[in-house]
């Protein structure tokens, strides 16, 4: 993330995670009582966190923000790729991106940490459609940060895992 942000003057960094239906979060709650999807359960210690995708998204963002040294007003977290029917995790990436220019965010960087490799959802939904929507709503500059597969470091890490496994 830091490498891609170098030289890009951005107003906001958006962490966009793959969305899932809320019922999946509740089903995965090993305590059967912790996950409320109310904004507090992800920050209250629980054995449910080991299996909670939502908590892990918030924790990944928290750790990345800490490493990047970002102030609280410089980033946010959303969920993309929902289908009709069930209620999916919010806030929704497309809705948030569409509203950002009106809030004064004119230069936006988007990272998709739940994706190891770029795919239709990161390329078409974010790098193309989200960029078009952001600019159509008054945004000026948009940076879609590539997934891990874009860097040599990732290939070296995977190769190391394979070498370790083969021993």
Question: What do you see in this structure?
Answer:
- The protein is 39% helix and 13% strand.
- It has one domain: Rossmann fold.
- The protein has a four-stranded parallel β-sheet with strand order 2-1-3-4, sandwiched between helices.
- The mean pLDDT is 93.
- The chain is of the alpha/beta class and 167 residues long.
- It is globular, with a radius of gyration of 17 Å.
- The chain has helices spanning 2-5, 22-27, 53-68, 93-99, 120-136, 152-166; strands at residues 12-18, 75-80, 107-111, 141-144.
Question: CATH top level?
Answer: Alpha Beta
Identify the strand order in the major beta sheet. 2-1-3-4
Mean pLDDT over the residues: 93
Shape descriptor reads: globular
Please indicate the count of domains: 1
Q: How many strands in all?
A: 4
Q: What is the distance, rounded to the nearest whole angstrom, between the alpha carbons of the first and last residues?
A: 32 Å
- Strand percentage lies at 5-15%
Q: State the order of secondary-structure elements, H for helix, E for strand.
A: HEHHEHEHEH
Instruction: Estimate the helix proportion, in percent.
Output: 25-40%
Count of DSSP H/I helices: 6
Low-confidence parts: none
**What value does the Rg take, in angstroms?**
17 Å
Please outline the major beta sheet: 4 strands, parallel
- Please give the CATH architecture: 3-Layer(aba) Sandwich
Query: How would you classify the helix and strand content by structural class?
Result: alpha/beta
Give me the CATH fold name.
Rossmann fold
